[in-house]
Task: inverse folding
DNA sequence: TACATTTGCATAACTAGTTATATAATTAAT
DNA sequence: ATTAATTATATAACTAGTTATGCAAATGTA
């Protein structure tokens, strides 16, 4: 199909579907060729029964990777066709154990030769081809089990989008964004406090002039995240990382991570050995981010904020 | 899936179906991730429209390998969703040309980034894997186009079955089979003639004692095909190949071919340079076989059989 | 030019799967 | 010993495709 060369790999699903149709269409013709009264979709169920003697419907479904209702229907069809029968009931009356009938066993023998021929035919194609479809499917089953396609795509998305994120120094024009982004999350989870208003209304005086820094994350030139480094009066810590806020609309672009990294770098540039932060454990994603950035729990410093119930530090190196 | 290791390659269809399901399930989630109001099955049609501007339903179907009704339904859904519209009718009033709406064009742009991300994610899997699924599918499409799976399987079947065919010399116990197999086809297509009865009722006297030979094809120890080499009174030919008959139930096992080859070999052993045969052109598969065995048309010999309308010879070397 | 054939599309009916849900039997927990 | 939760199955409704078929328009042909 020329189409697939044009579209690219994102049409993998369509390409697989077409190949599946080609193969299963021929499967039906193959049973006809061998004069066996058999429907291709029965095969996985039938095979399992031929191997396992006696087995429940749900067990078959798990074995062959179908849904339970699918197997349930197939079983009914095969009972009608006289290939299988319900076996002597077990003690568990919910279970519907099934076994091959005599006719079923006969067909199973008849089919054996056919399966070998198919095996050889497919083996022949594999020999003719450079890329082994069977082995590729096996590998893909494993790789997608390890990390699903949606996970992989979402990682690509993040990677691409975080490339479009730019971290810049605070300018007066970002004051409104600095205030709004912080007010948004603080008032959502807690209540705005005196110290908040001071810093957010007048970052120039309350943060920058005291020797602090503010960084802004721009996405498509719009400020979508902010974070401040506030000078502390403390022998152990030079700076507190605070007022980190990321617009909910821009989540999933690793903006928090990029801001945190940049702030730590900035603190290092300014000669700090350790930085400090205060937060609250109900902010799970934030706490998670702090751990990822390398922060560790500490105890005992005094704080003007009611909402603080966890304190952390990051040793810079 | 452990199941597939057990079953073997004949479950290729099932394995493909499962992989298709895994991939297309995630496809739906991917559109959700990107906040696009879009159904995965629309994609091939949508892509074609985005590329080709204006195109008919049947053309799309051919392009993407779907059936026409499938595209027809998808088009209807996408019209309802406002992504495409019927374009200014062409002069051919049967045709239903469709184009993207403005909304459609917008989504097409929005989707571009997404497609690139998917492409990269799949590329990543390909890099991680030893066997390239995408390339394998491409190759298989080509190889199955060249020779379908059913064709390949049927060749395997023939190959295997012809191994179980044994060509043996005539014995008295095969007289009944020799007669019946021949009577079956002769009386089906023509009428039994005087010369037939003589040879079939008493091959010992009429064929063997005159220096001829009869070979019998056994399949699972049952006689399923016969062929005679009859001594001729002719300066040019030593033998006539005649009374070849194969049981209709045993067709497709190359029995005719094996008998013919064996008869030619036997004639060579007996010192013949050329052998001769008579037949009728309504027996197309037979004539075909004779050509395959190397026989060529000749003209002019006299024959006792009414049914003869073609004469052939095989030069032995 | 009239009639047969072909083409493009829509619709209906089918297929092989799915998810959602109901029911009965069993097992676990109080 | 009840009651709640879980398990095994069946059934219903849905999905994404297929073939079969009918109709109207266009094309080919005697």
Result:
């Amino acid at each position: 199909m020329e189409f697939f060369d044009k579209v690219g790999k994102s049409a993998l699903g369509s390409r697989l579907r077409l190949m599946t149709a080609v193969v299963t269409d021929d499967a039906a013709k193959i049973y006809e060729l061998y004069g066996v009264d058999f429907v291709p979709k029965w095969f996985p169920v039938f095979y399992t029964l031929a191997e396992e003697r006696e087995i429940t419907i749900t067990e078959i479904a798990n074995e062959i990777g179908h849904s339970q209702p699918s197997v349930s229907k197939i079983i009914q069809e095969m009972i009608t066709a006289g290939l299988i029968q319900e076996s002597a009931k077990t003690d568990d009356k919910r279970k519907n154990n099934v076994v091959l009938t005599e006719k079923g066993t006969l067909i199973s023998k008849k089919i054996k030769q056919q399966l070998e021929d198919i095996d050889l035919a497919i083996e022949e194609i594999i020999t003719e081809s450079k890329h082994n479809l069977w082995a590729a499917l096996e590998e893909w089953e494993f790789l997608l089990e390890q990390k699903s396609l949606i996970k992989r795509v979402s990682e690509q998305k993040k990677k691409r989008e975080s490339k479009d994120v730019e971290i810049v120094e605070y300018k007066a024009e970002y004051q409104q964004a600095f205030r709004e982004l912080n007010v948004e999350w603080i008032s959502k989870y807690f209540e705005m406090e005196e110290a908040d208003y001071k810093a957010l209304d007048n970052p120039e005086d309350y943060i920058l002039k005291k020797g602090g820094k503010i960084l802004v994350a721009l996405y498509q030139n719009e400020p979508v995240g902010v974070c401040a480094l506030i000078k502390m009066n403390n022998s152990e810590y030079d700076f507190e990382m605070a007022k980190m806020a990321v617009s909910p609309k821009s989540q999933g672009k690793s903006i928090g991570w990029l801001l945190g990294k940049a702030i730590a770098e900035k603190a290092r540039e300014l000669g700090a050995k350790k930085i400090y932060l205060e937060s609250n454990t109900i902010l799970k994603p934030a706490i998670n981010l702090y751990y990822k950035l390398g922060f560790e729990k500490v105890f005992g410093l005094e704080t003007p904020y009611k909402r603080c119930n966890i304190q952390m530090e990051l040793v810079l190196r």
